[in-house]
Amino acid sequence: MSTYAQSARAQAPQQDTERPRGTVESDDQDLVGNAAVAERLGVNTPGSPGAGQDAEQGSGQQTAEGEGQESETGPGAVTVRNGGIIVAVYDHNPQNHATSTCSRCQPRVAALMAEGRTENQARAQARQEHLADEPMPNDIAEFERMALDFVSDHNAMPAIPVTHKDQVASGIRAALDQARAETGDPELLVSTVAFFAHGFRDSLKLGTRIGVMQVSSFVSGIQAMLTNDVVVANYACDTGQGPGDGAGSFSDTMHDALVDQGHTEATVMGHTSPAHVTNSPDLRLFEGSSTQGGGQHLSTIIFPESYARQQLEQDGVPTTAGNVTWLRQKMALFCMSAMQGERARDFALLGEAERQAMIEQVRAEWPSSQHYRDYEQRTRAWRR
Length: 384
What we know:
The chain is α/β, with parallel strands linked by helices. The protein has 4 domains: 61 residues, no CATH class; 172 residues, Rossmann fold (3-Layer(aba) Sandwich), CATH 3.40.50; 39 residues, no CATH class; 78 residues, no CATH class. 40% of the residues lie in helices and 13% in strands. It is built from 14 helices and 10 strands. A 7-stranded mixed β-sheet has the order 2-1-3-7-8-9-10, with helices on both faces. The longest helix is centred in the C-terminal third of the chain and has 18 residues.
């Protein structure tokens, strides 16, 4: 059982520790979801258990983990976060195998192009030859593995595999219908959607390609099932990438489509470079009710320019443009190291208080890093 699930269950009365699936957390426990994510990430927040601590029940006793409760959907109860359920959708179409990063396909593509094939022809042939020997290549299989990990960690509904983009809406609808039936709540919505797939600046390969020109119609097919403050996590390369603040990227376009269709507090996350599907902290968040401009990079959220200036000022270092830029680069490098793995994966899912606690924790780790020691060395002559 995930720490997330343990924490959520530990808030319930003793007699509910073995409750069957089909029950739902109370309204008060809707607030537990984000705190539980924070706890699993080791973030201490006011009023929540510390990292590595067990939450106590009203009786003062700790909840024991039930045996035989674990499943794809968690230990038993439908988890409700901010008034909605959590769903994960992953690409399961082997035709989306990325030949450009495949050690087997790359030399074959080069050889076929040397024989006179166009690049597209070479890639298509190399892919089919690969799939003949390995029907589900590792990159596509990794989407399933990461989606199942996400489901387990967040006690989400069963992961939804798709081989065509048109299956996304029906898959989410089936999960929501199941949750409504089990909870008896016909008004229940989806508050978190996680997509696991290959991505590009202008598209997402979720079964089949969804381009930026198709995002609005794609969103219209699912938006009625989403909460106003839905979080959409695009665990996919480059979907938040773009000049400056990522305006015009796939994730920015999706955020704007959600806002235009009434979800004025929506958050959409997208990676800004090719990297592992969930572990990369090179990501950008697109938030708020405005559709103007883009989003904020994770390193900027944690270490904004104002924080770098404050660091320089308290150390007596001139706040020149060069010094500020250099320090922010060092902070960004540290952030990329400190936020890898689950911290990066789950940052967008944190509530406001838990997010701030995570930011403060990472800032507290900054002075012990090699990047900070580089900063000390560079500014030694100015430091008081």
